[in-house]
Structures are given as C-alpha cells and as structure tokens.
Amino acid sequence: SEAPQYENILVSRPDPGVVLVQLNRPKALNALSSALFKELNEALSIADQDDSVGAMVLTGSEKAFAAGADIKEMKDKTFADAYKNKFLESWGEIARLRKPVIAAVSGYALGGGCELALMCDIVLASPTAKFGQPEINLGVIPGGGGSQRLAQVIGKSRTMELVLTGRNITAKEAENWGIVSRVVGEGEGQVVKDAVEMAKVIASKSQVAVQAGKEVVNAAYELTLAEGLRFERRIFHGLFATNDQKEGMAAFAEKRKPNFTHS
Ligand code: CO8
Fold this sequence. Notes:
The protein has 263 residues and is α/β, with parallel strands linked by helices. Helices cover 43% and strands 15% of the residues. A 6-stranded mixed beta sheet has the order 1-2-3-5-7-10, sandwiched between helices. It has a 4-stranded mixed beta sheet with strand order 4-6-8-9. The radius of gyration is 19 Å and the shape is globular. The two termini are 26 Å apart. Octanoyl-coenzyme A is lined by residues 28-29, 31-32, 67-72, 88, 91, 108, 110-112, 115-116, 134-135, 138, 142-144. It is an enzyme of class 4 (lyase).
C-alpha cells in the first residue's frame, strides 16, 4: 500500500531499522497544531507496528524542535470546547508507543515542545537547544504533562522555577539537570546524526528485549520500588522463553555476534 502523505511532518528511513520523523512547519517554528499532532501520532504508530523498525528518531529544525502548542489555534478556544473535545488528550499517545523514540533537539523546545521531548525515551540535545515552559507568560500552565514529567526528572524546586517564571534553560543546564542524556558536538545536523546512530544501535538488538527494557524502566515512574522490582524480575524471567535469549547467550559462549530474530 502507498505510504501516507503528510503536510506537517517529513518521514524517512535513514537506516533499514530506523524511522526518522521531522516536524516540518518552519514558518511557525514547528508550533504543534492539532493537524500536526494527528500526523505525528499516525506516523509513529505505523513505525511502532512495523516489524522491520527497531527505533524511531523525532526531530525539528536547527532553529526549533518545537516552539510549543500553536498559540494562534488556541487563542480563541473556550473552556467548553477544550473540555468537550478533550483538547490535548491524544497528544500523549507518543508516551504509549512500545518501541523507543529518541528526541533530537536543536533550538527551541518550549511549552508543548519541551513536553514532547519529555514524552520521548531518550533526549539528545545540540548545544543550541533551549528548553522551557513559558506558558505562564500566556496566562496558562503546561498542559502536555510538563509539570508532572519535569517534577519526576528534575525535582520540585527546579520545576517550580521553570513553570512559575517561564525562563528558558540552555542545553548545558538541561544536561546538568538530567532532562537530556547528553549534549552532542556542534554543527548543523549533528544531533540528528548522533540520534540516528543511537537508534541503529538499539535496532540491532532483540526487539523483544528492547520493548521489555522500555516497559520496565517506565514502570519505575508508576510503581512503588517493591512493585517495580517484582515487575522487573517477572519480565526478566519471561525473557527466558524467547529465542533471542537463547541466541544472545549462545553467541556469547561461542564468541560470535548474535543473530536476533525478534522472537
Ligand atoms: N504558536 C504559533 N505560532 C508560533 C509559535 C507558537 N507556539 N511560536 C512561534 N510561532 C510563530 C510566530 O508567530 C511567527 O509567525 P509570523 O511570522 O507569522 O509572525 C513565527 O513562528 C516565527 O516566530 P518569531 O518571529 O516569534 O521568532 P523569534 O525568533 O523572534 O522568537 C520564540 C522565537 C522565542 C520561540 C518565539 O516565537 C516565542 O516566544 N514563541 C512562543 C513560545 C511559547 O510561548 N510556547 C508555549 C506555547 S503554549 C503551550 O505549548 C501549551 C502546551 C500544551 C501541551 C502540548 C502537548 C504536547
């Protein structure tokens, strides 16, 4: 069947096992409109269900990962409309994908853009990246999970500072605070290159084990420690029923590379 055509995103295959999704509303600094999110959810969901894909990379432009939700689309919205139509509810679908998504952030990741990065599993930043939750300047608060996910990642005082002052932080601060796993070297396109390389590494592993790894790490944000440890152990036990466990450990013993069949 023909691949879907999109207006607000570009979808490519930089490697057989990796799907790259680029937000593509350059004139609006990739402001997140409903139409854009619909396309983004569709493209990522297709990749998530494609057996040949091991990991996804999500990026924006050099100037902006995404400058937030589309303010022009929101400005005349009423409470009744937002409530009845569950405004923003579907925007969290990215956090429910089974396969890993790596955010490659250059430039502005503000408001919904910062929240979108936080929904991804790994965040790589270019030295130009700027993160922030400026909603307070618009008379509102974060609505895409920023207050909750930031509090989990950087703690109360730093989250309060960002949410209540609306100040942006640099890539370096975001790295020190743990929002990003690392800041990559300078240069146009470097963050996407590094993210694709990382996605290729992940795509070379057993998809069953990768999915299990993502699931158990995410459980740490939902469960108590005792429940989480038990859940991890049960999933670990379950992996002994897979061909990839047999192959991975046999390959180690035979001093050769494993040939995972994702089964
Ligand atoms: N929405 C709509 N249009 C935008 C947005 C936005 N968030 N950001 C930038 N644009 C547009 C500008 O209006 C401008 O369009 P035009 O040329 O037609 O006037 C174009 O993009 C370029 O922007 P600027 O001229 O302002 O570019 P600068 O380089 O001067 O400034 C900034 C860049 C600092 C990023 C600036 O554009 C800015 O402050 N943008 C708004 C940032 C913001 O407040 N973001 C938060 C939005 S609220 C939100 O995200 C709620 C979260 C909802 C949950 C989402 C779940 C994932």
